[in-house]
Write a structure and sequence with these properties.
By secondary structure, this protein is mostly beta strands. 14% of the residues lie in helices and 36% in strands. The protein is globular.
Length: 326
């Protein structure tokens, strides 16, 4: 979902001009940084979903270390849910908390979820996995940087889609914009960066059949130049209960958020989808030695279901035996 996309902003590059003048940076470089953004997502029903409207406050924290390829992301959303036990307050807050990490240096990945609120039992779940087939952390970082700096900000255009991208300056910030269309609707995303490629904010509009989703997030304070700490990446200290080894199970999700996620294409779920895919791919790679089949791959070399994800995600997939990352 869009909440898992925040580190993905670092994929955007290629400057296409625009009404506000040329961007400061002609290519979007990947830099280590930590930032917390606050905002909301608004979903308005259409067609058969008319009458459905939900505003979802959210807080997103993203931390990335581009030397050793260490990522941490945490987000919190608040949705309104019916409370049949209290007729005088029919809707009360339900909070979903998600934390995830991918540390190529220590060869670990983990995901944890919790849902708390009136009428909801705590739903803590935490899973971690070893990811030993990634290769050297600094080589993976080079792969990601190269993939980002040599490609355009637009994702691959699957059959039936059109993609347009541009970059322009607005109020001293580089605003990177991409618009993706097909017969089912239009998705437009904007990312705002300062001259040092630090994230200042983002916006997304997904106008499709059944619903329109608008997201707006603004940095609470300027991003720092450091990535996650060891404490950030220590999933045993996340307060999500006992973290067990194994593939992650789908996190609990209040119905409005489930509908929200269902209306976003894979591109806008990339990080939150990438880490489970990486974990699944490593499990398939491990089992392959015992005669089990690997994770299904599409004709473009991406895992099935991730065909419209950015090319650089391939840098995180398990390396076949004997393959050297360059």
């Amino acid at each position: 979902m869009i909440l898992g996309l925040i580190p993905l902003v670092l994929v955007l590059q290629g400057c296409g001009g625009g009404g506000g003048g040329a961007c400061t940076n002609d290519k979007m470089k990947v830099v280590s940084q930590s930032v917390t953004m606050k905002g909301s997502a608004t979903m308005v029903g259409k067609d058969g979903n008319k009458g459905m409207k939900q505003a979802i406050p959210m807080v997103v924290t993203s931390k990335i270390d581009m030397e050793w390829m260490r990522w941490y992301i945490g987000y919190e959303t608040v949705t309104k849910m019916p409370n049949v036990m209290d007729p005088e307050q029919p809707e009360q807050d339900v909070t979903k908390i998600t934390k995830m990490m991918l540390d190529i240096k220590s060869q670990k990945a983990a995901i944890a979820y919790d849902v708390v609120g009136v009428g909801v039992s705590p739903m803590k779940t935490c899973n971690f996995m070893n990811v030993p087939f990634e290769g050297d952390a600094q080589e993976v970082a080079k792969c990601v940087k190269a993939g980002m700096e040599t490609s355009n900000m637009a994702p691959p255009a699957p059959p039936g889609f059109t993609v347009d991208s541009q970059c322009s300056m607005d109020d001293g910030l580089d605003v990177w914009k991409v618009t993706i269309k097909n017969e089912n609707g239009t998705v437009t995303e904007e990312w705002k960066f300062d001259k040092d490629s630090k994230l200042e904010g983002m916006a997304l509009t997904a106008d499709g059949k059944g619903a329109q989703i608008d997201v707006s997030l603004t940095a609470e304070s300027p991003a720092t130049s450091t990535g996650p700490t060891d404490e950030d990446l220590d999933y045993t200290q996340w307060g999500m209960g006992n973290c067990t080894e194994g593939l992650p199970t789908p996190g609990p999700m209040p119905p409005p958020m489930a509908h929200f996620q269902a209306n976003l294409p894979m591109r806008f779920k990339s990080l939150s989808s990438m880490i489970p895919v990486v974990m699944k791919a490593h499990e398939g790679r491990r089992l392959q030695g015992g005669g089990m089949p690997p994770i299904p791959m599409g004709p473009d070399g991406m895992p099935m279901g991730m065909e419209d994800a950015p090319e650089w995600i391939k840098c995180f997939l398990p390396k076949p035996p004997g393959l050297v990352t360059v």
